[in-house]
Amino acid sequence: MWKELGLCAAFCIGSISFAAEKASVRTKDFVLRFAKDKIVLSNPKWQDEVVIRKVMFIRSPHFATPIGAEQLTPDSFKVDYKIDVKANPKDTPEKAEALKKSIEAIKLTALCTATDAGAKIEYTLTSPEYKPDGAMIEFNCWSRFKKGGKGDLLKANGKKLRPFTKEGRGTYYLALPGNPNWTSSWAEHAGFRKSGDEYKTTLEFRFAPPEVTGEAVGALFDSKVEAAQPEAGNAPAN
Question: Which domain holds residue 94?
């Protein structure tokens, strides 16, 4: 009996490990993985450095939570999202019911890939009734700007890069997909753009150790850094 239980336990542990592996990409410098309700970019020691969670529409009460992942290739996996709405006690029963029903038409997935320099999260959204113009992506790196704070943005051939630095480790540069002023201590503007019957946007990260500066940063994005400019501030996303 105990032998059978032991074999069962070994099988279950192996299954769990296999399932986790099916939702991850490893390179020599990073581990990109799906973890319950978030997408995580970790260093080789499995210390989390970038965490990406919900997508919130902001201008409507809809939000999307990562709920599962499927390995597509050794270098990529797809994340599926659950759509829901924030309850509003002021809504009439009819409006609340209509909002719940609207969930059925909204679909969101994210294609996740990792490279030796960082990661790319490519979102595809179907939302026929509600525009995601003000959508925000819940995102956390080592540090975030405090409310009302200012930082520097780098310009690199049309891209605006926001740096997140940890002393002694290096800097993550995020190529901003949307309005750089729509930022907060917990999110970045998603910048969804219409593409046929869908909306698309991309979060693209590149990591640079402390010795990588100046135009070498642009090379991480296959572009040239033109200049650093002060951020205009943290305007609300509405």
Answer: 24-146+183-207
